[in-house]
Amino acid sequence: MEDFDRLDRRILNLLQDDAGLSNAEVADRVGLSPNACWRRIRRLEEQGVIRKRVALLSQEKLKLDVTVFVGVKTNEHNDKWLQEFANGIKNIPEVVEFYRMSGDVDYMLKIVVKDIADYDRIYRKLISVAPLSDVSSSFAMERIKSSTALPLS
Question: Which structural domain, as residue segments, surrounds residue 42?
């Protein structure tokens, strides 16, 4: 964030909070002309700081009530296996986050589904993607904090 000034940070915070704001609204809130604001936003997009703008949907309203964190262990630690596993996971839309980890588990997945039966369907897909040595599932009981906003100083 060293290359970004106070106005860039304010613009980014506003857009993280509501990507649907018009350029004129953002410009007004940060005290810039619409043209100057548009140029800054365009630069942030070109630099890849703003990757894309999305709508955040309600899991509850869509009846996607179950969030599962899945730890995966494997005995395979090579690029071929990882490519096979990653490509298989990319084809499972219920996997909303996927990380390679340090520590006791090799990979961590966040999966969002309707119910336990729906998770079992995804679990069966998951274990068919590539050879795994262990799959451990933890079901979220309550979402206490969830944010897509990154901390900007």
Answer: 6-46
Q: Name the one residue in this structure whose structure tokens are 């990507």.
A: 19
Position 61 in a domain: no
Sheet bearing 107-113, strands edge to edge? 95-100, 107-113, 66-73, 134-139
Q: Does residue 76 sit in the same domain as residue 35?
A: no
Q: What is the pTM of this model?
A: 0.88
Tell me phi and psi for residue 89, to 5 degrees. Answer: -65, -40
pLDDT tens column, 57-109: 999 999 999 999 999 999 999 999 999 999 999 999 999 999 999 999 999 99
Give me the CATH number covering residue 90: 3.30.70.920
Phi then psi for residue 98, to 5 deg, are -150, 120
